[in-house]
Automatic annotation (TrEMBL):
Gene3D superfamilies: Bipartite methylase S protein, DNA methylase specificity domains. One of its GO terms (molecular function) is DNA binding. SUPFAM superfamilies: DNA methylase specificity domain. Belongs to the type-I restriction system S methylase family. The lineage of its organism: Bacteria, Pseudomonadati, Bacteroidota, Bacteroidia, Bacteroidales. Keywords: DNA-binding, Restriction system. InterPro entries: Restrct_endonuc_typeI_TRD, Restrct_endonuc_typeI_TRD_sf, Type-I_RS_S_subunit. Pfam families: Methylase_S. PANTHER family: TYPE I RESTRICTION ENZYME HINDI SPECIFICITY SUBUNIT, TYPE-1 RESTRICTION ENZYME ECOKI SPECIFICITY PROTEIN. Residues 25-193, 223-356 form the Type I restriction modification DNA specificity domain. This is Type I restriction modification DNA specificity domain protein. It comes from the Bacteria. GO terms for biological process: DNA restriction-modification system.
Amino acid sequence: MTTTINNEHKKLNVPNLRFPEFQGEWEEYTLQDVVTFSNGKAHENCVNDDGDYILVNSKFVSTNGQVQKRVTSQLSPLHKYQFVMVMSDLPNGKALAKCFYVEEDNKYTLNQRVCSFTSNDGNVSRFLMYQINRNKYYLRFDDGINQTNLKKSEVLSCPVFIPIVREQEKIATLLCKIDERIATQNKIIDKLQSLIKGIAQKIVRSNKPNVRLYECVECSSSTQQESEVCEQGAYPVYGANGIVGYLDDYNTEGEAVYIIKDGSGVGTVSYVTGKCSATGTLNTLQAKDGYSLQYLYYLLKVFNFEPYKTGMAIPHIYFKDYGKAKVFCPSYTEQLQYARLLSAIDSKLSVEKNTLRNLSLLKQYLLRQMFI
């Protein structure tokens, strides 16, 4: 690839990064010039878990097809090489203008508030999809207060820049291969996560619980508020969503298990090492003599907190309740063996997650540099 150099400092319709065999400016159009638009239809009356077709709605698109709803009728058929875009979302939502590319015929049907596009004049639909996906032109309609509902005229007025077809194909092919690699990486991560969970569940199901949790760990809570932490400091402060800030002092050192004790993430477990602190939304567990905290962490990852939840609007868990639950603890030596095994898989998982982050960053960089 080559970087575009503009010695005359004129505003040119060319991307910053380009395959070396291509030259010349891209042509500027609006989306309506290069696609045929179609709206989806309501499918409420034909939703059925055993339906033959996948309903392409905003949830399906926003989760990259992970969350699916099936229907019995293909009221708004989608065809291979089309792409779709979400037209409606909540304030500051992540689905607005998100796109999905159709790879198969006779499989999908389009729901209302999602539109489809068919490329015209030989233009490459996948290239167009990458260009308009979450395009800032659409995101500016989100005022952060009200639900956004894009009109057809607003959708089709998006400016697009079009090179020759061969360049479109090459860009689309590169980005598609990165997407395929990202999908593979996600599968690797899912397999490792399933392996850790499976081993931990095997330990739990194959052995009779022999000790109560409060006999293994000590529990403490903090009055630290997230609003009291700083952007900089010597030691991290953990909250419900990981590190929320820093302080120049700490409450724990060595190792600790944090459990979210209230809110939507109640029962979520994390393991940390080193000097750090926690906000008041977390329980802090530390091992008593003769117990491996890391071993207990992996057991708690598959522990069922549901029977111990209280509160309707905001669920809570209390150590005085779940601490009475029995868990299986073998000898200390065996605990360490299990912990080392699961920790080794966890380390591999961290490496794979870092690879995924790098792939995602690469894709975002190319999207910024290879389009105008």
